[in-house]
Design brief:
The protein has about 150 residues and is an alpha+beta fold. Helices cover about 40% and strands about 20% of the residues. Strands 2-3-1-4 form a four-stranded antiparallel beta sheet.
Length: about 150
């Protein structure tokens, strides 16, 4: 599907506020509500819009420590990467897992209650996985753009 400027504007508005009403969205992109709805539905049908998410206040859930963790594996095979990814999918503390290029295989976004919980996660959970050669932690101090 080829996007025009109006489609891109719709995507920009929905990415800022996925709960915006169709009438408000139409107003912001200068379309009639029916034309706007048709475009949104077509963006959904074509797979460009794949879902809508809630923004969560993690501090309200008791998550006070966020870090990015780089992971280097000892074995660089499809099987070892697949096993690592399968395991990480089931670890609640891992919110994101990205397979990347460079001198590491993965970057993980980890969210836990505090530094003690992170130490347990680092040592007893992720550090205990087979084929994990090294880990490096980057603690998030502040998020200016999410």
């Amino acid at each position: 599907m080829k996007l025009d400027a109006t489609d891109q504007q719709i995507l920009d508005e929905l990415s800022r506020d996925g709960r915006i009403t169709n009438v408000e969205l139409a107003d912001r992109v200068a379309l009639s509500p029916s034309a706007c709805l048709r475009r949104v539905q077509e963006l959904e049908r074509s797979g460009i819009i794949v879902g809508y998410k809630a923004e969560i206040d993690h501090k309200a859930l008791g998550i006070g420590f966020v870090a990015y963790l780089t992971v280097r594996l000892t074995v660089h095979t499809k099987e070892s990467q697949g096993a690592f990814e399968d395991t990480v999918r089931n670890i609640a503390e891992v919110r994101e897992c990205h397979n990347v290029t460079g001198n590491i295989e993965y970057i993980l976004k980890v969210e836990v209650a505090d530094i003690g919980a992170y130490k347990h996660f680092h040592t007893e959970i992720i550090g205990a996985l087979p084929h994990v050669a090294s880990l490096s932690t980057y603690v998030v101090l502040n998020t200016s753009k999410n």
